[in-house]
């Protein structure tokens, strides 16, 4: 591993370093991370024009909307030369002092701990930091309320895209989901560290993907703690097991099995290309919600809604995007979401998704504004957040019990014919409003085990509601509260949020190839698709379902 290259002065920082010698801590955690060290390098090219994009002096009406001392982070749109369309970006602010953010050199790698395993010293420190953040003056952009509002602004259509009529700006349900939240946590963590004079402070992650972490971490449930929030579902406080499938199965052991299946599915089995995991492209002038990635719509959404308080009008705090940031647990939940991104990029075998990078300039150049730990308004780009080690943090290494949690093979031949007798043909039922279980027969592209994707098109949703449905293939058994079986293919779900016209249209793709390995599809040329809503009442309409050939087939397995 090459050493960190530090050719020039770094950005001023109030952090005190105990060592003047830049040492790059060994990235000891994930095995594959060790290989990545050689890519770490700090370039100082950015230092020269650090301020050149500031002070355009234009008053942006959305800044006016939110008021001074409020937050300014929102979009404006600039052209990206050479790009097919434009990245979501911004170029002006009332503060006239936006600095292009440079990642500081990494002196010491921070390790984000699993929230269930932290020491009393850590809890004390984290509490103190949160307490200080809560006590900052209201107009300090680093105060807790202002930090919470950042989420509201980027996530609830508080801003429109300029010149685009009623098109909102929305980082969710698109490829901006992971990058936005990574930067958001990055600055939140640095602010907390600064408040306690500990630049190595690292946020804990809620380890909901591991059975040992499948309750709300105990450090968040003490009413006297600065980490507490009373607006949570009281029925889901510990020892309740988090229900990543929202199946409401009353058996906690079955819920754990469901959770591990969901993780296996959304991290490994269900994705065919990078967008299936990351979310669909979202560019200037395009509508919100182009389509969420598997992790966003799956475990991420479920945790929000599961924690949100049903006593509140719209599931506050975690259960609605506008209020989610008001619960300190949000940042712990999202640390695990971020960890999933990092694991997916650098740890998981690449066999199912051959190329995990997005090289589209509209993605790489998309930019956000945040306040850093010194209350400086900074502009950050997606391309600078693709590698968490370059950003100076890693995650505690914990077992990944879902990694091999492949459902048992379905040995009984799929009896499409028998169950299929009662099912309608796909062509005849769509579009349909999904308010009860629906079974349809969908033609395959080839008979038997083929490399195929199931596509659900024109899913139109009422964005103000919690909506979720699960998809099964050739499922003969009617126990819809059990997901640990080959027949479970995936899910669509959304966290309630506001959009200009309360609706959005999206689509998802679910990979069937590996699932066929676990069930006998004989040489059928049709599969039976079962759609199971987990929400009450109407709210979702599905335009159509089809099976297509996998356009990005994985390389052949080495024999
Ligand atoms: Cu911005 Cu989990 O939401």
Automatic annotation (TrEMBL):
<keyword id="KW-0479">Metal-binding</keyword>
<feature type="binding site">
    <location>
        <position position="334"/>
    </location>
    <ligand>
        <name>Cu cation B</name>
    </ligand>
</feature>
<dbReference type="GO" id="GO:0004097">
    <property type="term" value="F:catechol oxidase activity"/>
</dbReference>
<feature type="region of interest" description="Disordered">
    <location>
        <begin position="1"/>
        <end position="23"/>
    </location>
</feature>
<feature type="binding site">
    <location>
        <position position="181"/>
    </location>
    <ligand>
        <name>Cu cation A</name>
    </ligand>
</feature>
<keyword id="KW-1015">Disulfide bond</keyword>
<feature type="compositionally biased region" description="Low complexity">
    <location>
        <begin position="10"/>
        <end position="22"/>
    </location>
</feature>
<dbReference type="InterPro" id="IPR050316">
    <property type="entry name" value="Tyrosinase/Hemocyanin"/>
</dbReference>
<dbReference type="InterPro" id="IPR008922">
    <property type="entry name" value="Di-copper_centre_dom_sf"/>
</dbReference>
<feature type="domain" description="Tyrosinase copper-binding">
    <location>
        <begin position="172"/>
        <end position="189"/>
    </location>
</feature>
<feature type="cross-link" description="2'-(S-cysteinyl)-histidine (Cys-His)">
    <location>
        <begin position="155"/>
        <end position="172"/>
    </location>
</feature>
<keyword id="KW-0186">Copper</keyword>
<dbReference type="InterPro" id="IPR022739">
    <property type="entry name" value="Polyphenol_oxidase_cen"/>
</dbReference>
<dbReference type="GO" id="GO:0046148">
    <property type="term" value="P:pigment biosynthetic process"/>
</dbReference>
<protein>
    <submittedName>
        <fullName>Polyphenol oxidase, chloroplastic</fullName>
    </submittedName>
</protein>
<dbReference type="Pfam" id="PF12142">
    <property type="entry name" value="PPO1_DWL"/>
</dbReference>
<dbReference type="Pfam" id="PF00264">
    <property type="entry name" value="Tyrosinase"/>
</dbReference>
<dbReference type="InterPro" id="IPR002227">
    <property type="entry name" value="Tyrosinase_Cu-bd"/>
</dbReference>
<dbReference type="InterPro" id="IPR022740">
    <property type="entry name" value="Polyphenol_oxidase_C"/>
</dbReference>
<keyword id="KW-0560">Oxidoreductase</keyword>
<keyword id="KW-0883">Thioether bond</keyword>
<feature type="binding site">
    <location>
        <position position="172"/>
    </location>
    <ligand>
        <name>Cu cation A</name>
    </ligand>
</feature>
<dbReference type="Pfam" id="PF12143">
    <property type="entry name" value="PPO1_KFDV"/>
</dbReference>
<comment type="similarity">
    <text>Belongs to the tyrosinase family.</text>
</comment>
<feature type="binding site">
    <location>
        <position position="151"/>
    </location>
    <ligand>
        <name>Cu cation A</name>
    </ligand>
</feature>
<feature type="domain" description="Tyrosinase copper-binding">
    <location>
        <begin position="327"/>
        <end position="338"/>
    </location>
</feature>
<dbReference type="GO" id="GO:0046872">
    <property type="term" value="F:metal ion binding"/>
</dbReference>
<feature type="binding site">
    <location>
        <position position="304"/>
    </location>
    <ligand>
        <name>Cu cation B</name>
    </ligand>
</feature>
<dbReference type="InterPro" id="IPR016213">
    <property type="entry name" value="Polyphenol_oxidase"/>
</dbReference>
<feature type="binding site">
    <location>
        <position position="300"/>
    </location>
    <ligand>
        <name>Cu cation B</name>
    </ligand>
</feature>
């Amino acid at each position: 591993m090459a050493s960190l290259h530090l050719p020039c002065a770094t950005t001023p920082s109030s952090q005190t370093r105990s060592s003047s010698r830049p040492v790059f801590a060994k990235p000891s955690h994930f095995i594959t991370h060790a290989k990545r060290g050689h890519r770490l390098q700090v370039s100082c090219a950015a230092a020269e024009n650090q301020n050149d994009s500031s002070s355009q002096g234009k008053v942006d009406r959305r800044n006016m909307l939110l008021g001074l001392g409020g937050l300014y982070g929102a979009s404006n749109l600039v052209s990206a030369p050479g790009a097919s369309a434009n990245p979501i970006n911004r170029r002006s602010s009332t503060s006239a002092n936006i600095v292009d953010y440079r990642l500081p050199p990494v002196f010491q790698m921070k390790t984000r701990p699993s929230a269930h395993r932290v020491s009393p010293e850590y809890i004390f420190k984290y509490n103190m930091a949160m307490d200080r953040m809560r006590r900052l003056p209201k107009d300090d952009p680093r105060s807790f309320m202002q930090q919470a509002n950042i989420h509201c602004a980027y996530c609830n259509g508080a801003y429109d895209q300029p010149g685009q009529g009623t098109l909102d700006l929305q980082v969710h349900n698109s490829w901006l989901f992971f990058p936005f939240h990574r930067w958001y946590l990055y600055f939140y963590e640095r602010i907390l560290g600064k408040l306690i004079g500990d630049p190595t402070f690292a946020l804990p992650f809620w380890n909901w993907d591991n059975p040992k972490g499948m309750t709300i971490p105990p450090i968040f449930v003490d009413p006297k703690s600065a980490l507490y929030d009373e607006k949570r579902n009281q029925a889901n406080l510990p020892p309740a097991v988090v229900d990543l499938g929202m199946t409401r199965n009353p058996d906690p052991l079955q819920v754990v099995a469901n959770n591990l299946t969901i993780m296996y599915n959304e991290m490994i089995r269900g994705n065919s290309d990078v967008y299936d995991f990351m979310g669909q492209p979202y560019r200037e002038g395009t509508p919100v919600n182009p389509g969420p990635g598997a992790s966003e719509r799956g475990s991420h959404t479920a945790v929000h809604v599961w924690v949100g308080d049903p006593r509140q009008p719209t599931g506050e705090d975690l259960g609605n995007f506008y209020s989610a940031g008001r619960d300190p647990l949000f940042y712990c939940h999202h640390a695990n979401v971020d960890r999933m991104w990092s694991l997916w990029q650098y740890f998981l075998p690449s066999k199912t998704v051959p190329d995990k990078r997005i090289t589209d300039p509209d993605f790489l150049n998309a930019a956000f504004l945040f306040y850093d730990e010194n209350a400086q308004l900074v502009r950050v780009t997606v391309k600078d957040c693709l590698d968490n080690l370059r950003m100076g943090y890693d995650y505690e290494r914990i077992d990944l019990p879902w990694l091999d949690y492949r459902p048992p093979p379905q040995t009984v031949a799929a009896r499409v014919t028998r169950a299929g007798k009662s099912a309608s043909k796909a062509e005849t039922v769509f579009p349909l409003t999904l308010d009860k279980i629906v079974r349809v027969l969908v033609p395959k592209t080839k008979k038997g085990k083929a490399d195929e994707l199931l596509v659900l098109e024109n899913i139109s949703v009422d964005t103000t509601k919690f909506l979720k449905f699960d998809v099964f293939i050739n499922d003969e058994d009617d126990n819809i509260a059990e997901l640990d079986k080959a027949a479970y293919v995936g899910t669509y779900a959304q966290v309630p949020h506001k959009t200009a016209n309360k609706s959005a249209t999206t689509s998802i793709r679910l990979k069937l190839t590996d699932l066929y390995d676990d069930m006998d599809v004989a040489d059928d040329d049709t599969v039976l698709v079962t759609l199971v809503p987990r929400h009450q009442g109407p709210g979702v309409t599905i335009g159509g379902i089809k099976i297509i050939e996998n356009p990005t087939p994985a390389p052949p397995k080495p024999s």
